[in-house]
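Tokens for chain A. Residues wanted.
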């Protein structure tokens, strides 16, 4: 994909010449001739490099540098200035510009600068990703007796090397708990290798686990290391092991018992000293009776079972979990409307924590990072029984009801002010208040 350049300069000749040259040398170019237009382009697009002229019709380009650095810290920023404005260019670099060019710009020099800028942007992106991973928050477990029991068992499991079997509905955080056990175990310096058994079937799963030799099958053009090999000295986490094919179950049972395996199509025996953690949302014991899961493998992995409660069972921890998930999404000081708290607390959460996280993320996107309001959570899958009753079952009426509640509260119960904000007459507002049984707080 071609790197994208935003050229901010008000001279038509500069825009034409730079665009023609950069398009020819492998860049995509967008232009802006003012600070105002540049701000609009920055919001609308995603850029690798910004070329910024300091003299613009609606202000000094220096004023834009701090905004760019704060909002788009990984983007490479090159300042373009007149020959007599070198001190101004130095100041621009002190404010956060990466480099500067003086007019008239040598195009060969510009090409070199842009090449280095693309590399710089890539390095910054990697560094920011690394920092985000390093700042990953400790999982939130809560204070409910059910989750404290889970945490107690997880702490015991972390200190041992036995196989752990985690049970729980979809979205309850089985993978998070598995990683926590690994990170608090003596194997924490090794790799945590996660395999989703429901996403891979048959030979594909075998190839991922065991690896394969060149020529083992049609598309095996070279030797491939298996994840068992990667997990040596660390932890292998098999998520949704209940979906593993019976053939692969037989192969993997032998690996657990002997800690030895062969790559597909190879005769050489290999060893891997891994710790095994499994997870499933199925009733494996029932599956063994119905022939869907091998009994010998079930008894081999069900050494230390831990059952995670559903989100609905953790009512007292919901508030803290919401704040924790918002912090993980980098929203630490979000104001949440009281009606939103009621909505989230009364919902039954069939998708558990994963669904809660997705709904919060969607709500924050709709709110632009400001206060979370009921109108940001209007969806059929988040309606409560009370809401459906009040709104007559229609998602459109539900949206209207929540919006009127929101505006009425903002206006302190003043119906005249609320009607003006809503753009309707007071009699119309009164009819809707009566229809939805809205009580002003």
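Reply:
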């Amino acid at each position: 994909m071609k790197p994208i350049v935003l050229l901010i300069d008000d001279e038509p000749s500069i825009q034409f010449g730079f665009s023609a040259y950069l398009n020819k040398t492998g860049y995509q170019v967008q232009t802006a001739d003012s600070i105002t237009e540049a701000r609009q382009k920055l919001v609308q697009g995603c850029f690798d490099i910004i070329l910024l002229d300091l003299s613009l019709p609606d202000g000094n380009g220096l004023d834009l540098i701090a905004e760019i650095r704060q909002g788009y810290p990984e983007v490479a920023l090159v300042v373009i200035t007149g020959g007599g404005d070198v001190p101004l260019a130095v100041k621009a670099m002190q404010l956060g510009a990466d480099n500067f060019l003086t007019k008239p710009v040598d195009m060969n020099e510009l090409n070199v600068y842009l090449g280095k800028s693309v590399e710089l942007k890539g390095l910054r992106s990697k560094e920011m990703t690394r920092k985000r991973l390093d700042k990953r928050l400790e999982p939130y477990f809560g204070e409910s007796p059910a989750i404290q029991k889970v945490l107690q068992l997880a702490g015991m499991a972390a200190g041992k090397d036995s196989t752990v079997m985690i049970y729980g509905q979809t979205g309850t955080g089985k993978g998070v708990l598995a990683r926590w056990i690994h990170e608090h175990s003596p194997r924490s310096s090794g790799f945590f290798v996660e395999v989703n058994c429901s996403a891979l079937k048959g030979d594909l799963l075998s190839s991922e686990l065991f690896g394969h030799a060149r020529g083992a099958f049609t598309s095996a053009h070279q030797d491939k290391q298996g994840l068992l090999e990667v997990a040596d000295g660390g932890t292998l986490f098999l998520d949704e092991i209940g979906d593993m094919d019976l053939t692969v179950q037989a192969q993997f049972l032998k690996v657990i018992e002997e800690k030895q395996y062969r790559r597909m199509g190879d005769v050489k025996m290999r060893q891997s000293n891994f710790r095994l953690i499994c997870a499933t949302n199925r009733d494996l014991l029932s599956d063994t009776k119905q022939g869907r899961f091998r009994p010998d493998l079930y008894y081999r992995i069900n050494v230390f079972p831990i059952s995670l409660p559903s989100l609905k069972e953790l009512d007292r921890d919901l508030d803290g979990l919401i704040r924790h998930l918002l912090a993980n999404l980098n929203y630490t000081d979000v104001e949440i409307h009281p009606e939103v708290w009621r909505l989230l607390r009364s919902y039954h959460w069939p998708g558990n924590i994963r669904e809660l996280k997705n709904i919060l993320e969607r709500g924050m996107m709709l709110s632009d990072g400001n206060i979370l309001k009921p109108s940001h959570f209007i969806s059929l899958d988040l309606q409560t029984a009370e809401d459906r009753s009040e709104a007559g079952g229609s998602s459109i009426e539900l949206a209207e009801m929540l919006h009127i509640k929101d505006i009425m509260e903002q206006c302190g119960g003043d119906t005249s002010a609320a009607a003006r904000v809503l753009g309707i007459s007071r009699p119309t507002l009164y009819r809707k208040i009566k229809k939805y049984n809205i009580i002003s707080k």
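The chain has 19 helices and 16 strands. Residues 384-389, 391-395 have pLDDT under 50 and may be disordered.
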